[in-house]
Specification:
The chain is mainly alpha-helical. The protein has a domain of about 350 residues. It has a two-stranded antiparallel sheet with strand order 1-2. About 0% of the residues have low confidence.
Length: about 500
């Protein structure tokens, strides 16, 4: 076994308590440890991505117990991609948090940050649905601590709503696990794929119930309609670096849908054939509409960005709902793009709002570095809205190209294109209010805010890095798409996944 496979889980798991108990009174030491851990995680993620690039599925058996009796971690191209995405985003976010001083507003920021990374990486690597539930709970606990970081009444209220809805999702998750175990006798994803395929369609009622319950749970995590309402309040009230890190959290729900509902419940499984997409597709279309109208009607910047994240999740899940190799490859490209686009918007919003003193979309005196902030904001907004030349345009184009089935093309194309138009209008209105009307005649000069310090290179660098990633995704769209097509081929190779986890004698 390759012990590096478990390193993305073990590294932050060891580092978090060390920071919490040994370094909590020394912010400089905590910062150094957190940055070093994030750098090490990024290096490990790169190595795992190279290891998985050959197309082989690698297995790590905890305690050397074979699956399905023991806990296993599974590394393939998809899990390696998601861990790499998490590691890069984490490095950007922790740099921004340190540069802007957000981490110093609470004692345990870096410890919670590392626990969050542990939960995210574990969710991407686990080969067992019960352990996916465990890592979801780690995510919930750590994200709640980060959500209320630095306190405040509105933040506490939004954090309570966030916890309640996620605890309800966790309860449904346990119901789903109990139902699934009662009907199949296993929770290992590969073993589940074997057993579900052997159940006749007329006897698979409990399995279908479990599949729908799991879909609901993952929809909660992915902020899918009608349970998307927690996201705008949570993201708009969270500290900006935390909201940027949360951009990867909704992708955990999308990843779980892809992994479990592709390998275990479809396509080609008689008992659950067509079940996931039937419910997912219309809900994703409504999610796009909710996000677009939310962006158009927002009167504050942070809720506007949060609603754009809702809309991007709807676009992503429209592609996921097709459960076809072409649409899944497009969805994976959009996962990478939308994560960095949302992060870029939250980080640049933090720089702007710190110097404006509030996020209301009203004309106020122009801030220092108004031109620089305007350029960064519009670059991130262009990416999120799906306009050329950045990766958002290519991501939506790939999704539209993959959704050519007559039964879904009219609805998907119409909703995605109209939603994009409304998002463009909303961002254009917000940007003109923030940066152009602030310099118009009749608005007080920026000299009244001369005491506001300009952003230094360390504060600008993380935002520039996210925008650079979005540009690189567009420039290297060809090679990235080829890698993602190979990733999708491996994901849909159920027999290969089963034989890698359970052994070549397992019946797929």
């Amino acid at each position: 076994m390759n012990h590096w496979i478990i390193a993305p889980v073990v590294l932050p798991a060891l580092l978090a308590p060390l920071i919490a108990f040994v370094m909590r009174h020394d912010i400089s030491l905590a910062r150094a440890a957190s940055v070093a851990g994030s750098l090490a995680l990024a290096a490990i993620a790169v190595g795992l991505t190279i290891l998985a690039a050959g197309g082989e599925t690698h297995l790590y058996r905890l305690g050397d117990w074979p699956a399905p009796f023991g806990i296993v971690l599974v590394l393939d191209r998809l899990s390696a991609l998601m861990v790499l995405l998490t590691a890069i985003l984490a490095l950007i976010v922790v740099t921004h948090a340190i540069a802007t001083g957000w981490d110093a507003r609470g004692r345990h920021f870096h410890a919670l940050f590392q626990f969050q990374l542990m939960g995210i990486c574990g969710a991407f690597l686990t080969g067992d649905i019960f352990n996916l539930f465990v890592f979801f709970e780690i995510l919930l606990i750590a994200s709640y601590g980060l959500m209320i970081h630095s306190g405040g009444r509105e933040r506490m209220r939004a954090g309570l709503q966030y916890v309640v809805i996620n605890l309800a999702g966790s309860t449904l998750f346990l119901f789903a696990l109990g139902t699934l175990y009662a009907s199949t006798g296993t929770l290992n994803i590969a073993d589940l794929a074997v057993r579900v395929a052997q159940i006749p369609a007329e006897e698979a009622a409990l399995v279908r119930v479990a599949a729908i319950l799991l879909m609901i749970v993952f929809a909660v995590k992915a902020a899918l309609f009608p349970v998307q309402f927690w996201l705008p309040a949570t993201y708009s009230n969270a500290p900006a670096p935390v909201a940027a890190l949360f951009a990867i959290m909704t992708k955990v729900g999308a990843y779980a849908i892809l992994r479990i509902h592709t390998v275990a419940f479809g396509p080609g499984v008689a008992g659950t054939e067509g079940l996931p997409g039937t419910w997912l597709f219309p809900a994703a279309l409504v999610t796009i509409a909710v996000g677009a109208f939310g962006v158009l009607g927002a009167r504050r910047l942070m809720p506007l960005i949060a609603f754009s994240a809702v809309g991007s999740m709807g676009t992503l899940l429209v592609a996921v709902a097709a459960f076809s190799p072409e649409a899944t490859a497009a969805a994976l490209y959009y996962i990478v793009h939308s994560t960095f686009a949302a992060a870029a918007l939250f980080l640049v919003a933090d720089l702007v709002l710190t110097r404006r003193g509030g996020d209301a979309l009203v004309s106020v005196p122009a801030t220092v570095q108004n031109g620089l902030f305007a350029a960064l904001f519009f670059a991130a907004a262009i990416a999120m809205a799906g306009m050329p030349p950045l990766s958002g345009f290519l991501g939506k184009l790939l999704i539209l190209d993959a959704l050519r089935d007559p039964g879904e093309m009219a609805w998907a194309w119409s909703v995605i294109l109209i939603g994009s138009l409304l998002t463009i209008v909303g961002f254009a209105r917000a940007g003109s209010t923030l940066f152009w009307k602030s310099t118009a005649a009749g608005v007080p000069a920026s000299s009244e805010k001369a005491d506001v310090a300009p952003a230094g290179p360390a504060e600008i660098a993380p935002v520039m890095a996210t925008v650079a990633v979005l540009a690189a995704l567009a420039v290297f769209a060809g090679p990235v798409s080829l890698y993602l097509e190979g990733t999708t081929t491996q994901l849909f190779d159920r027999a290969g996944y089963i034989s890698s986890v359970l052994g070549p004698d397992a019946e797929g």
